[in-house]
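re: ur question from yesterday

yeah so i grabbed the chain u mentioned. its 356 aa long if i counted rite. heres the sequnce exactly as i have it in my notes:
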Amino acid sequence: MLLAMLAQGGTVSAASLIAVDADQQSAFGITLTAPLPAAETLTRRYPAEVAVPNRQMRVVAAPQSGVLESLLVAEGERVEVGQVLAELRSPELVDAQSQYLESLTRLELIETELARDRTLFREGVIAERRLLESQSKQRELTTMVEQRLQLLELAGFGSEDIMTLARTRRLTSRLPVRAPIGGVVLEQMVSTGQSVATAAPLYRVAELNPLWLEIHVPVERIVGVQEGGRVLLPREDTAGTIVTIGRMVHGQDQGVLVRAEITEGAERLRPGQFVEVQLSAEAQGESWRVPLEAVVRHAGNTYVFVNRDGGFEALPVRVLAEEEGSAVVAGELTATDRLVVTGVVAVKAAWLGGAE
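ran it thru and got these structure tokens back, copy pasting raw so excuse formatting
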């Protein structure tokens, strides 16, 4: 039958009707489908690494040097803001408390002396110079108290701890280390009984929603990718939004860093995980999405076979993007057209036979 089709189309040109009747369409399993309007195109799949946004990551460090007496949480646990993560035994903490209490006592004493000197100055008993000296000492000691108070706060003392220390004058060497944010413990970097220096990292804590996807897109394929565009994760059945597009081309792979943010479905992803993604780009002009099997290439051009009365027409199209199982094309198509999607080989044979 295919030979008969070729024979009857001996004078058919590439732009003419390809005569295929209903019986021939049935015999060759020719099926039709409609083109769909395409507002966007999808790239091929790219690898992407799941990362935690910088604003959601904290490294919990030792506020003072000392020995880790206990670690109360481990990797993978969820923690709340202010929760005690570890307890540190620190001789330096005792010294910081002692200096604070000493400066506080000296300030109380000079404030008493200042009040007395003001009274004596009003009564004309002492000269103004002595009053000014007392005021200067009071300001100096106030600054010292503030300085040592801040050192205690940096050491991890809260306002209640400092008030209790000022009231009871009882020193302690045990220092609780608290979580600065709520989230999940991603990493534990120390062990119980270990000696640590000031600012030594203990834990890495992060809030895991939303998450970032970091994608390296080849520089020649970055055209059309815009901030606010969609990023699809086919295997995870979720999507994100492009938030930044890098300006630098990375030398190792000639890729541009595209960063997307994932909110829905973030619980199914883990930092450091590699996933496959597709980027969406705004389609240029009027575009149509058709099955990939419907696109025919010949002599450097691309066509689709459109159903017409009594057969098919080879309609030239321009391929804008090739997706998984489909292509986005531009051409003189309408939503009512029907394209050949199976049996394309038979129609192409009839077309080329007619052209000859």
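noticed a couple things. The chain is about 25% helix and 40% strand. also The chain has a mean pLDDT of 88.
anyway ttyl
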